[in-house]
Amino acid sequence: MHAHKIPTAVRLLGFATADAARMAALLGSAPPAGPSYLCLHEDSLQEPDIVLADGTNPAALAWLDNMRCAPPALVIGGPAHGGYEHLPAPPEPALLYESLIRLLAERRRALALLSARGEPLLAERRRRPRLGPDAGCAAERQPPREGKVLIVDKGGAFRDHLAGLVGPRRLAIAWTDSAPMAVRLCDETPVAVAMINTAAPGIDPYDLSRTIKAQAGAGRTAVVLLVGRTFAYDGELARGAGVRGLLDKPVGDRSLVCMLQRLTSLAELPA
């Protein structure tokens, strides 16, 4: 999972459906010699590397201004806003790609500065932008979930990587390749997060999530799907099965840590 090139995660903020589709097509056509881009699904739990915001949507701009740890952002359309980089709509492709490369360089400098200072990584407090009438207001936050992280996968390599990343004393990480065993573990032991690899053979991730969430002891277990590009994620089916959200594979270490900070009692780690 971690040997592949990790694409730049882009959050499209406040765009109408047709405009978002056009923006995603532009990002998918980026020059192959440069960075590749992945537009995050609305159910994604991943921290974006870059935010593209609709400059004509006041709610989107308000949410951007109130992010806890805002990544570099590019405002498309509308007037210039808040010192963010700005392009008119529709953006000219060459100018869009140049702006994204500049923002990525800014992102790398900011993360390097955090690391040099020994400052912790900060996870965004909200799962997704709030674009309704209360946009920009402080979010309600549930107490951190207590318990281990359970990995459901065909092998234990990802479990080993995650355990090494966060440290076994900070957060217990368990693994199984069996759906019945996953259900049993979630029933008998406190599990804060169950991460299901959708490529695990013989496992229906929606059915497994539904079964886990049906148990009295797993009401607060957050089910997260690890989704590859060949898997057709169905947001409506996932939410109906109790899935909390998804992470696209391959996923970077920072995104994993931030997700665990948000869903478990894991303390902040140094950058």
From TrEMBL:
What Gene3D superfamilies does the database record attribute to this sequence?
3.40.50.2300
- All copies of domain Response regulatory, residue ranges: 148-264
Spell out the protein name for this chain: Response regulator
